[in-house]
Amino acid sequence: MSYKPNEGAMMAYLYGELEGSEKGKFEQYLLTSAEARMELEKLKGLRSVLSHVQDKEVIAPPIFIDSNTSKRNSFFQSTTFKTIIGIAASLLLLMMVGKMTDTRVQFSGNEFTMSFGEVRTQPEERVVEVPTGLTANEVQAMINNSLADNNQVVQTSLDESQKKLNESIRMNLVANSKKVDENLKQASLASQEQIQQYVSSLQTGNMEVMKDYFKMTSNDQKQYIEDLLVDFAKYLQQQRNDDLMFMQARLNNLEQNTDVFKQETEQILSSIITNANVKQTTRN
Amino acid sequence: MHAETLLDIAMMHSDALVERAKQGDQNAQGKLVQLWYKRIYNFGFKFFHDHDLAMEATQKTFISMCKNIASLQDSGRFKSWVYTIAVNYCREETRKMKVSRSLSFDKVWNPEAESSPKWDSASHRHQNPEKQFQQGELSEILQEALAALNEDQREVVIMKEYEGLKFREISEVLNISENTVKSRMYYGLDTLRKILEKKNITKETIHYEL
């Protein structure tokens, strides 16, 4: 019993991985040790139980990933790439528009030019002209000269206009003051008499108007009253005539009535008399 | 347990494919993904016992694989290299899950209490449905038992038992010694056995039931 196999050997034997002398030794040991045989049997039984686990069927999904494509994909999908592409696209668009509109952008010296279409040569000529050997002093002198000239001209014209202005103002003043003086004198002389005349003429005018008015009104009144009196007299006369006529008619009427009455009484009387005569004769 | 399917054979002889993928051949990379997707997904599924997390880790694994395959020096070590990536992403997902402290919807809402038996998982219709169901149920129980292991042991058990990596390869993947791998394997199996015995699931009971 010098050989006592460990768990490792047992495992190796169980799975058939024990080789050569090791295997021989282990098998020898098994023959001597019932305990080891039991153990091995148990393990074999366990293995046969374990073998009942079924493999699950599974279908491999298509995986087409290799390092290159995956890297490229991730790069193409990265935000950095999208940003860069975006910027590039907008730059390209700008360049296209620039090309189509023939845009030129220049920055030379301190001059920044941006132009559409053909570049004019004028700015370049000006640029050329500028450095024709004029020193700062000369420029200063020229500026001073022109300034002095300018000042002189301005001064003379100013003086002239000043003089003209003054003269015209003086003349106007003199003329105006004379006129005003004359007007004032005339006005002061004339005023007193004119007012008196005016007032008297007004008074007489008023009086005449009043006289006329009174005359007219008195005449009218006389006429009116006369008419009134005449009318009244006429009316009275008419009234008397009517009354007389009426009296006449009443009197005639009364006369007729008495005449009728007389005739009737005569008839009645005559009839009575005849009647009495008849009666006397009959008695007789 | 691994039947020698065409897929497995193709996986075993994928060195030329790996070589081409290293040169940047996208077609070869795509084929590698197709070849390994199921294995890595199932590794993830057993690790998390959760479809979404497994999908997440698997996709990340393959994206990383395609990106970095050029830096793989030895084509023969492709397998352990892929599992290294997968393990790293699985660990990362676990960390995220712990940080977010959120409960998966599947955990809050117990699907077993509500849903009918998993008919849809019965892909082989010609088999006995009852057996299929029991198989599914057992599988579920075993998954839960796996999930009860601690992370270190779980990685080793899954890679050894289900992914068929050699102890040497696992030690490369996890960057630990082979002895540590074996020790973790041993204790992992031990824990599993205890859990399953508690549930009265042994070789004998299973065969009786089946």
Short key terms for the protein model shown above:
heterodimer, A: 284 residues, mainly alpha, 7 helices, 2 strands, elongated, B: 210 residues, 12 helices, 74% helix
N-to-C SSE series of chain B? HHHHHHHHHHHH
Give the overall average pLDDT of chain A. 85
Q: Order of SSEs of chain A, N→C?
A: HHHHHEEHH
DSSP helical segment count of chain A: 7
How many individual helices of chain B?
Answer: 12
Q: In whole angstroms, how far apart are the ends of chain B?
A: 17 Å
Main pleated-sheet profile of chain A: 2 strands, antiparallel
How many strands appear in the DSSP assignment of chain B? 0
Helix fraction of chain A, binned, reads over 70%
Looking across the biggest beta sheet of chain A, what order are the strands in? 1-2
- Structural class computed from helices and strand pairing of chain B: mainly alpha
Write the layout of secondary structure elements.
The complex is a heterodimer of chains A (284) and B (210).
Chain A: H1 7-14, H2 20-32, H3 34-50, H4 67-77, H5 79-101, E1 103-108, E2 111-116, H6 122-129, H7 136-283
Antiparallel strand pairs in A: 1-2
Helix pairs in contact in A: 2-3
Chain B: H1 6-12, H2 15-22, H3 26-48, H4 51-68, H5 78-100, H6 105-108, H7 111-114, H8 129-148, H9 151-162, H10 167-174, H11 178-198, H12 203-209
How does this structure look, described?
The complex is a heterodimer of chains A (284) and B (210). In chain A, helix 2 packs across helix 3. In chain A, 80% of the residues lie in helices and 4% in strands. In chain A, strand 1 (103-108) and strand 2 (111-116) form a beta hairpin. Chain A has helices spanning 7-14, 20-32, 34-50, 67-77, 79-101, 122-129, 136-283, and strands at 103-108, 111-116. With 284 residues, chain A is mainly alpha-helical. The mean pLDDT of chain A is 85. Chain A starts with 6 loop residues before the first helix and ends with a helix. Chain B is 74% helix and 0% strand. Residues 118-124 of chain B have low confidence and may be disordered. Chain B has twelve helices and no strands. Chain A binds chain B through residues 7-8, 10-12, 15, 17, 42-68, 70, and chain B through 1, 24, 26, 29-30, 33-34, 37-38, 41-42, 45-46, 51, 55, 58-59, 62-63, 66-68, 70, 123, 135-136, 138-139, 142-143, 146, 160-162, 166-167, 178-179, 182-183, 185-187, 189, 192-193, 196, 201-204, 206.
